[in-house]
Predict the 3D structure of the following.
Amino acid sequence: MAQSEQMKPTACLALADGTVFYGYGFGATGEAVAELCFNTAMTGYQEIMTDPSYAGQIVTFTFPHIGNTGVTPEDDETAAPVAAGMIVKWDPTLSSNWRATQELSPWMASRGRIGMGGVDTRRLTRAIRQQGAPHVALSHDPEGNFDIDALVKKARGFAGLVGLDLATDVTCAQSYQWNEMRWAWPDGFAPQADPKFKVVAVDFGAKRNILRCLASAGCDVTVLPASATAEEVLSHNPDGVFLSNGPGDPEATGVYAVPMIQGVLAKSDLPVFGICLGHQMLALAVGAKTIKMNHGHHGANHPVKDNDTGKVEITSMNHGFAVDSQTLPEGVVETHVSLFDGSNCGIRLADRPVFSVQYHPEASPGPQDSYYLFERFAAAMAANAKQAAH
């Protein structure tokens, strides 16, 4: 009897089509309703859970070893987890990592995030690939009591991410300065003491490591909320403008972000660099369109080809929407493409230093195949300043 009670499922995942997965809960108790995606990265579960781009999503990890590096505040991409929950094959293991300050399960519990282990993640991933990212309801009850009909109904009632502006939920409340550079042994995160360029970063849900990469490239970074106008951006007299990553439907965020970007492009000749949602915002601003993908790209092993050089970069990705390359107007060059499905991964304007990429060059899966983009941004600002001096 005791054994059967011990084996009783304590977590349940209900898909909108009525499919139900059972497992063992960890982290917080309660329910979460969201879109379900899968991530193929072998490392970085803490960075993934705290990446603002995962707002409105529950993440299935295809790699089974989750929890083995614990958690540390140094690896948070924002102050608290943003992803709604996580699904893993095995229960999280205890950490074996000199940097860890806490175990995964209590960290999740203290931050109100639900986890479920003991799931056939291969089967679940196959379902996501074949049917598209489903709407789901995840429940964790230590007593194992679930109202399946109610959970399925909640999953079906989820509005989805199309038409949803989530940048306003995860952006900063007010502007702030950033000078912390990338982590390096043995000093950790050192401040940028001698910045060469002044950059305004528009925060649609910015990851801290992007800001660190900008600082490491010689930038004094002023971060503005997503609602910033072109006038507010330009009032800081920046040498360049950065458009950050973020969650949700780019067309919904574009209602206020696109006019800002168009204003910056029209009123200045500043270099502009965008990543992820920032890439999609820039594409919309120059006249292209975005589309919802079937199951998106989420992982740290995505090959991307640089059309200019022919080089292939191993990149980190997290996006459920993509720029439709068929809609790129004249004067906009497609610079990068995914070697998984040929989807657009980068653009630049033909006649000025304005460019963006869909993937995350601040991550290090290659390990640093794509850091050159930050250096390219810095070089563009240096060239602009030199031209202005003459």
Q: What stands out?
A: The longest helix spans residues 250-267. The radius of gyration is 21 Å.
